[in-house]
């Protein structure tokens, strides 16, 4: 927003917005980050309950009088923006400010923090505690509000359905241990290894949102279930297929638990080191054909967003120069382009319960950073950016490239390390447009050559029909070809049975089979 737009917006906030989704503070430079985190949780949850896109925390305005007083909170821009990372570290699931605006008004400096609404079905906590507003007071999120948020998607969320008859022994012990390690890695600043190891499996599964009221759900089984536990998901298949395409062909199906088998699938992919030589350098830069983090992000997104009710499998096809990921279901909210910058936060998930569980054990990001991180990962390796394809109804197809298809593009990234992501996106578009143009020209050239060859053969047959005793020299003159060219065309026509020679080369003649002139 421009300064004038910010002034108008601030005036509207002061005059019209409800107390529960806007909080005004004067806030000096020492204002507690912990308090900001609590307000973030409260305002995000309240925005969800009021069906608002966002909420606002405003520094530099007196709460009682609603007048601008100015704030000295983090005057340095880098420190101010760093607040985003601090909030993301201790919110659960990890989420942070959508934008942080500064307004230098005549009455003083104002900082406006834009807080995204909690996604449908997923309340936001700060350091393990859920907060809400009661008028202008900061309070714990009550059980009624907590249940209201969680119920938003339970009736529609395939992944949240409790599986009657399923027990912890239906889960894979190795998958549970891997989930614990991932949970500890994510929350190492909140829990110690000893604390988590002291939890029973049942307590851990509930704390990590892998079960619902200590009951096993479809999400639990998808991520942690033993292969034979797939029967609890019937008639919905839970399967990922890897397929090798090209000169060599192979395939393998991967079943539950997806927390483990997604890694096994990644290990099937042929991932060798590639070299690119920078300008004015004698040393080549080596990179892996596929980045593990980018590849796993793409695969885990398929698991999280798959429409399991469509009875399809997730498909990963490995071509010599790319990986193609396909999952059932439409793209849920917005378009991929809106998420590239990392600023858009989705409000809805097809499988909210599954998405939150995967976020808790570090499989995906629920802030909308996944597409952003995949683009950054490809750019850091000087490769084309990922492409989405929605040509097939009710399916999403993502392509990850693994070759330096345009040396100019790769060299530009390699020799200009300070390019912004926006600049890289434009370069990527230009590069792909150039490649498409080249391919179109090459295709046109091939078609032209084919048409020319066909026309030459047709004209030759016409000449042979009109003058069966025509010589090679005469054919060369009429068709504008060398003698070798005439001989090559004659061999081709004899090979396909269009003509045959009657008599000797010197005294014989040409016979066109059945009088046909079509090739």
How does this model look, in words?
The structure is a single chain. Helix content is 42%, strand content 18%. The chain contains 17 helices and 20 strands. It has helices spanning 3-16, 33-49, 77-90, 143-154, 173-186, 193-198, 201-207, 218-224, 258-268, 292-305, 336-339, 352-360, 369-380, 407-415, 421-466, 472-479, 483-495, and strands spanning 22-25, 54-59, 91-92, 99-105, 108-116, 125-126, 129-134, 137-140, 211-212, 215-216, 240-244, 250-254, 273-276, 285-288, 314-319, 322-328, 387-389, 395-401, 499-502, 509-512. The strands form six sheets. Strands 12-11-15-16-18-17 form a six-stranded mixed β-sheet, with helices on one face. Strands 1-2-5-4 form a four-stranded mixed β-sheet, with helices on both faces. Strands 3-6-7-8 form a four-stranded antiparallel β-sheet. A hairpin with an 8-residue loop joins strand 13 and strand 14 (285-288). The chain is elongated.
